[in-house]
Amino acid sequence: MEKHNPTIASKLSAGAHPGQGMELFDFKAASSEPPRKGKWRQLECNQSIRATFTDQARLRLPSKYTRCISVLRWTLIALCLLLSAYLLYTITAPLKIISVHHDAATLPVLRPALAANKQKTKHDPEKWLRDHSDLNHYETGEEWFNDRPKAAIISLVRNEELEGILQSMRQLEWHWNRRYNYPWMFFSEQTFTKEFKLKPTQAATTNATNAQTSYHLIPKNHWKPPPHIDVSRFHASLSYLGTLGVGKGYLLSYRNMCRWNSGFFYQHPALAPYDYYWRVEPDVHFFCAIPYDPFRFLRDNNIAYGFNMNILDDARSFASLWKRTREFMAQRPDLVHPDADLSWLVDETGNGGEYNNCQFFSNFEIGDLNFFRGEANSAYFAYLDGADVGGFYYERFGDAPVHTLSVALFAGGKDKMWYFRDIGYQHDIARHCPRPEVRRGMCDCEATGLDENFYKLVPMESPQRKPGDSCLRLWLGGSWLERREGYDAEVERALGGDGLGGYVRREFE
Ligand SMILES: Nc1nc2c(ncn2[C@@H]2O[C@H](COP(=O)(O)OP(=O)(O)OP(=O)(O)O)[C@@H](O)[C@H]2O)c(=O)[nH]1
Ligand SMILES: [Mg+2]
């Protein structure tokens, strides 16, 4: 017996008009065999009838078996989609959690007070950081490659410090360079061993990065006292500073190291094609993800030198450095930059115009090689190293105070220097970790204060006067130096403090 679909029949009788060049639905065929594609003929009817008709008919189309398959198919598709979404999420989640948005209040920036005429420059480092900070950004492609600064990570290191440099590399790679792939360049006066470079089954420098690595020998005359050095006077200095207990003052290798880092690294032929360097030592720590390219930052903002610790050095190691520097300035006043600001380095009142021994702690530095290669710095180094002074061997001039004085004298104003406050870092007992307010979940360390590390490097027995404010505050200047009314540093010291209290402006406001 033929069964008609009552709904369709009633809809038809209620107003649908078959014919007039349109094809009709074959009810008989529809009732006797399951309709297939092509069995439909169009109805001349309004849209609503067609919809109801189609729905009704469809309900009857698939057999139980076909419906099951269809359900299964959609379930599988849904599962696949879910799985893909989950995989995508797990791969990118660590990056997304700390995707960076800078607003004015959380910029990782502490800038020094500049001389009134220097307040306005065409560079805007804060804006640059806002525009270029992105942890999900991986630099790839030709456009990026052609535009990136010519820069390298450089390390003076010994074969026996392999474990230490691997540790430094792992952290810097993880927190930054795996997204930028700047080359690592290793320097030594010794030939680097196969173990140091590449040992397929073990950790070695080549395995610690996807970036290019290269190994360079230091020319012999860059790593030994120059001929004008009087050997017996030099030996007397080794034993004198050794006896005093000035850090590594008795080591010839240390003197060579300080001299190379002061005046020779930027002359190495392997660095000739490069414009910027980031110095990395073995056994240092990097605590924070770095969401931008510091090389590009320096270049785009015309900054010569970046540091992240500005602390006091042991003055006994460079007793005549300031006197010699003044001599050089007197000889070559033309080289001193017109914007040079020495106010944070020279204590005119408390210390009679002497150098206060503040220094950029140079085991971390990111800098412009062309500044160091320039006439002013080269001449300054040549003077300190020359026959009249011989300061790297008769004393223990360190590369940190030498770089600091050079940058301050010859690079320009403080806007040529940058405090990389957001790069958490540790070298031995000196540690810098950004405050929670500015770290944005990107650091794995306990926050340190602004005055932290100030005199950590100066042993109790050093008779040097400490400046009244920490080096970093002196560099920042302005309101960073204001104390609350009635505060007396002498009273604080008499009570056992260090005289660094009472500041109106604390680190983050
Ligand atoms: N190739 C080579 N590298 C050296 C030599 N002496 C020091 N260095 C490297 O120079 C850098 C500074 O040397 P360190 O001995 O760490 O000096 P420092 O940082 O002032 O002293 P510490 O506080 O003890 O770390 C490190 O990267 C050392 O690996 C040396 O004789 N040969
Ligand atoms: Mg060191």
From TrEMBL:
Superkingdom assignment: Eukaryota
Keyword Membrane annotated: yes
Protein family membership: Belongs to the glycosyltransferase 15 family.
Keywords: Glycosyltransferase, Membrane, Transferase, Transmembrane, Transmembrane helix
Gene3D superfamilies noted in UniProt: Spore Coat Polysaccharide Biosynthesis Protein SpsA, Chain A
Natural source organism: Lithohypha guttulata
Classification of source organism: Eukaryota, Fungi, Dikarya, Ascomycota, Pezizomycotina
InterPro entries associated with the record: Glyco_trans_15 (IPR002685), Nucleotide-diphossugar_trans (IPR029044)
Transmembrane segments: 68-89
PANTHER family referenced in this protein's UniProt entry, alphabetically: ALPHA-1,2 MANNOSYLTRANSFERASE KTR1 (PTHR31121), MANNOSYLTRANSFERASE KTR4-RELATED (PTHR31121:SF7)
Protein name in UniProt: Uncharacterized protein
